[in-house]
Amino acid sequence: MKNKNYKYNPETLDYEEVKLSVWDKLKKLSYYLIASIVFSFLILSIAFYNIRSYIQEEAAKENQSLRQEITSFNKDLNLILEVLGDIQLRDDNIYRAIFETDPYPDHKRQLGTGGNSMKYKKYENMEYGDLVIEISKKIELIEKKLASQSKSFDQVFDLTKEKQKMIKSIPSIQPVSNRDLTRIASGFGLRMHPIYKILKMHKGMDFTAPIGTEIYATGDGIVEKVGWVGGYGKTIMINHGFGYKTRYAHCSKYKCRKGQKVKRGDLIGFVGNTGQSTGPHLHYEVFKNKKQINPVNFFFNDLSPEEYDKVIEISSRPTQSL
Predict the structure, then answer these.
(1) Radius of gyration of the chain (CA)
(2) What is the structure's pLDDT at 320?
(3) Which residues lie closer than 8 Å to 209 by C-beta, 6 or more apart?
(4) pLDDT digits (tens, 9 = 90+) for 170-192
(5) Is the dihedral of CA 76, 78, 79, 81 positive or negative?
(6) Contact 144/112 with Cβ under 8 angstroms?
(7) CATH homologous superfamily of domain 184-315?
(8) How sure is the predictor about 138, in pLDDT bands with cuts at 50, 70 and 90?
(9) Quick one: which of 81, 131, 196, 294 has the fewest CB in 10 Å?
(10) pLDDT of residue 7
């Protein structure tokens, strides 16, 4: 049933139906529309305010979390720099000290540090720009430190290979089989000359052994001489590099040739009685930078501490050289 509006007429004392004109209907409709718009605006305003507050609150939380993450990352970079500093310290004072070489030059470690400050200007107006600039500088510093440390370790690696070569080259065993140590006849120092019967500096060690006893290279090297050398008789000279040479005198036969590469323990000749010798033996000398030094200091590779002490005792006895 259609809704009808009535109005009381005092003249007729009766209710009469009110008929609205088109204009009245439009006015009434406009009131509803205006009320709806106002109500909708109020609803939207409240909703927008709540949404905006929520977004701002979430953004603040996210920004705080982001700052915490950046700060944590910055602390991690500090730890990395500390580790790099410790590696540098070990490199200069331990690794290089082992190989008796100078620390990696400081000017090479500092090469390229500092950089262009203008490249960080783009971060100045960013949120947390100060942290971003600090982190960028640390990352650049770490990259440069890693590059210089890598070059330093390349040098240490080369030193390692050279040290291994040197360790293999240093004379460090007895030149004849001598586990019972009974073959040491005369040591380094003033000894009675077997022919001239006067005290004379004996610049090597004599090992008694039957003719034909095997003689071994005491370190890696290159055979420098094979032949007769005056009173030494048949002689072998090995150049071990690093300033070291060894001489094996009074041999009976050779088992090597000049220019041959030999390794520690290789058979190079046989004991004899050639040259100024009063009996079969091997006269053995060690040179360091062209100067003869006591060979007894170089038997550490095949003797126990007790055996080495015994060698020292035997070689120091005031005997006659052979």
Answers:
(1) 49
(2) 46
(3) 176, 183, 271, 280, 281, 282
(4) 898 889 987 656 677 776 665 55
(5) positive
(6) yes
(7) Glucose Permease (Domain IIA) (2.70.70.10)
(8) confident
(9) 196
(10) 64
For residue 159, give both structure tokens. Answer: 């030193």
Residue linked to tokens 């005290």: 199
**Range list for CATH 2.70.70.10 in the chain:** 184-315
Tokens of 154: 């390349």
Name the DSSP letter for residue 272. B
Quote the pLDDT of residue 307.
67
DSSP 227-278: EE-GGG-EEEEEEEETTEEEEEEEEEEES--TT-EE-TT-EEEEEB--SS-S
pTM for this predicted structure: 0.55
Query: Can you tell me the distance from the alpha carbon of 45 to that of 235, in angstroms, rounded to the nearest whole number?
Result: 110
Which tokens in the block code for residue 77?
Answer: 């970079």
Q: What percent of the chain has pLDDT over 90?
A: 23
Helix (H) or strand (E) holding 132: helix 129-169
Give the amino acid at 63. N
Query: H or E stretch including 107?
Result: helix 106-109
The number of angstroms, rounded, from the C-alpha of 192 to the middle of its chain's C-alpha atoms is 54
